[in-house]
């Protein structure tokens, strides 16, 4: 370990000190690497085996590294879906005394996949739609927390399976800003437009590489991030007015948000001057409604849709066993011991790394349903597991630490690596009204003219 090197971390794994920090990251020996990422990247990124886990090491300028490290820590504290920062290492020098770039170290997100890996595996157009939907949910969650991303793209996102859909995680916060007072509308809309532009470019790149069918309209798929974002934002934040005789709509609004996976932390209610009408508007909404229920009842840490599926199965178990009157906490304990754990343990140990346990459970439930439909009678869980293990699971690759496609590249920035990020709050504030008006007139973004290029 070089004498001048400095490590900033909440907790330091001693094994971190044994890595060859005196060597440029691009030249690290294969024996310390978990995989060599492929593809162009603005920064050098390597995945490293460390104390029976995998970390991502990114070579980057010192000030940018510290800034991104603190941003990621703030996002983790706020419960945002993002990678976990581990350390910033500065003061690196080569054996010859040459100064080396600083590095940012983050935990590799287990069972996550870069978008290119999903397309290389499936090559189905609907995969793009599901990824866009997941990214829209992520962007809404980040904006609700007051986080402006600045470089929204599929490349800067990792995806985990979530009961047939995907859950998206922010993996790169270099251009981000956290505004505790909330985002201006201008910044929100600019983020959406950047997302649309980047996604269209990335999908066109997939088509050029024959990873996406040429018949797919990349402009239409890119437009989906705008429509999905606006739909979800409206449901979560819009004011709703109704007569005093329709107060049941308060409960209905809350239940609708719960169904979407959000808890309402704060709701404002007001009446008009006559007292005949009232208005409600959610002020604080927290994602993770089903996740928290499953965590409370079983201790399992699962994705949102996985949690919803597991709670549905728990309710079915509760009915079948005649325990509708028993406390749900007791029933959940029995369900965990009699249904979930035996199902997962029935999967050979060497195959359990392919998917998260909750995703395996979801797929087995799906497989059991299809088998029952095909045979026109109820198939036992044991039979479903056996058939799933022999016919379905082998087709999945090991996703616990899949690193086959190193897609952590970042879009080229117009400022230098060590230059301070522009303070554009005033500019955005001044342009808010104009931005909102332009966006309302053309909701598919300021670059929608791309559709007409060459015509």
TrEMBL record:
Transmembrane segments: none
Domain DUF4032: 231-393
GO molecular function terms attached to this record: kinase activity
Keyword set includes Ribonucleoprotein: no
Record keywords, A-Z: Kinase, Transferase
One Pfam family hit: Kdo
InterPro entries tied to this protein: DUF4032 (IPR025111), Kinase-like_dom_sf (IPR011009)
Annotated protein name in UniProt: Lipopolysaccharide kinase (Kdo/WaaP) family
Lineage top rank: taxon: Bacteria
SUPFAM superfamilies cross-referenced by the UniProt entry: Protein kinase-like (PK-like)
């Amino acid at each position: 370990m070089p004498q001048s090197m400095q490590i900033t971390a909440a907790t330091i794994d001693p094994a971190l000190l044994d890595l060859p920090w005196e060597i440029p990251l691009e030249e690290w020996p294969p024996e310390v690497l978990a995989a060599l990422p492929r593809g162009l990247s603005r920064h050098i990124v390597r995945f490293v085996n460390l104390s029976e886990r995998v970390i991502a090491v990114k070579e980057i300028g010192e000030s940018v590294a510290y800034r991104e490290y603190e941003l990621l820590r703030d996002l983790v504290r706020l419960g945002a879906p993002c990678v976990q920062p581990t350390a910033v290492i500065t003061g690196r020098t080569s054996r010859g005394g040459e100064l080396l770039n600083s590095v940012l170290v983050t935990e590799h997100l287990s069972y996550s996949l870069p978008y290119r890996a999903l397309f290389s595996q499936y090559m189905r157009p609907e995969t793009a739609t599901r990824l866009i939907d997941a990214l829209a949910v992520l962007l809404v969650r980040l904006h609700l927390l007051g986080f402006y991303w600045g470089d929204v793209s599929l490349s800067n996102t990792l995806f985990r399976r979530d009961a047939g859909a995907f859950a998206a995680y922010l993996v790169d916060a270099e251009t981000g800003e956290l505004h505790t007072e909330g985002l201006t509308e201008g910044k929100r809309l600019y983020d959406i437009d950047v997302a649309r532009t980047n996604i269209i470019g990335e999908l066109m790149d997939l088509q050029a590489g024959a990873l996406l069918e040429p018949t797919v309209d990349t402009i239409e798929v890119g437009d989906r991030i705008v429509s999905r974002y606006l739909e979800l934002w409206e449901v979560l934040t819009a004011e709703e007015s109704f007569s005093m005789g329709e107060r049941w709509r308060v409960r209905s609004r809350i239940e609708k948000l719960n169904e979407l996976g959000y808890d309402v932390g704060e709701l404002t209610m007001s009446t008009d001057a006559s007292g005949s009408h009232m208005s409600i508007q959610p002020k604080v909404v927290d994602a993770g409604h089903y996740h928290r229920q499953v965590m409370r009842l079983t201790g399992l840490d699962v994705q949102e849709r996985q949690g919803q599926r597991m709670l549905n199965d728990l309710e079915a178990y509760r009915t079948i066993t005649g325990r509708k009157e028993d406390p749900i906490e007791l029933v959940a304990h029995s369900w965990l011991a009699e249904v979930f754990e035996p199902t997962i343990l029935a999967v050979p140990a060497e195959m359990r790394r392919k998917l998260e346990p909750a995703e395996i459970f979801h797929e087995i439930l799906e497989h059991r349903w299809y088998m029952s439909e095909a045979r026109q009678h109820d198939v036992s869980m044991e039979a479903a597991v056996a058939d799933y293990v022999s016919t379905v699971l082998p087709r999945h690759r090991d996703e616990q630490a899949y690193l086959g496609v190193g897609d952590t590249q970042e879009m080229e920035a117009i400022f230098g690596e060590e230059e301070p990020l522009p303070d554009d709050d005033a500019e955005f504030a001044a342009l808010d009204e104009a931005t909102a008006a332009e966006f309302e007139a053309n909701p598919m973004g300021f670059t929608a003219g791309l559709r007409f290029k060459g015509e």
